[in-house]
Every structure is written in structure tokens, then in C-alpha cells.
Amino acid sequence: MFKQIWKGWTVAVSVVFTPLFLIAALVQPDVPGNMLLAVPLVPVIAAGQGVLIGAAVCFGLKILAIKK
After folding, report:
1. Which residues contact 5 (CB under 8 A, 6 or more apart)?
2. Burial class (CB in 10 A: 0-12, 13-18, 19+), 46
3. In 10 A of CB 30, how many CB atoms?
4. Which residues contact 58 (CB under 8 A, 6 or more apart)?
5. pLDDT, tens digit, 9 for 90 and up, residues 32-58
6. What radius of gyration, in Å, describes the C-alpha atoms of the chain?
């Protein structure tokens, strides 16, 4: 279950935010140049968030199972 949550979160966040960061970096004239360097880091950050979200969900389900 953890792997499904982690992969789902990573893919969803990457698909949504990578194009947005790329558009923001290319279209706006006053964006710093290092914004283009941030675009490849979006999937890495999303993977880290996915690990935390997956762990929290699995931990919560484990606690609920113990309470029942």
C-alpha cells in the first residue's frame, strides 16, 4: 500500500507542477534564472513528499487497526 501511495503522489504532483514551473520560468520576464534549475527538482521534492504522505497514511491505518 505504501508503494502505491508514494508512486501516486509523486506522479500526480510531478504532472501538475512540472509544467507550471516550466511555464513560469519561460514566460515571466522577471523570474530569476535559477528557476529553470528548479524544474528538474520538482519530481525529487514530490517523491520526498510522497514518502511522508505514504508513511502518515500507513501509520494512521495501523493505529485504526489497533483501536478496532
Report:
1. 50, 53, 54, 57, 58
2. buried
3. 4
4. 1, 2, 5
5. 777 778 888 899 999 999 999 999 999
6. 16
pTM: 0.76
Q: Alpha-carbon distance 46 to 68, whole Å?
A: 33
Cell representation of residue 46:
514530490
CA distances from 44 to 47, 49, 66 (A): 5, 9, 33
Residue 59 C-beta-side C-alpha neighbours within 13 Å: 6
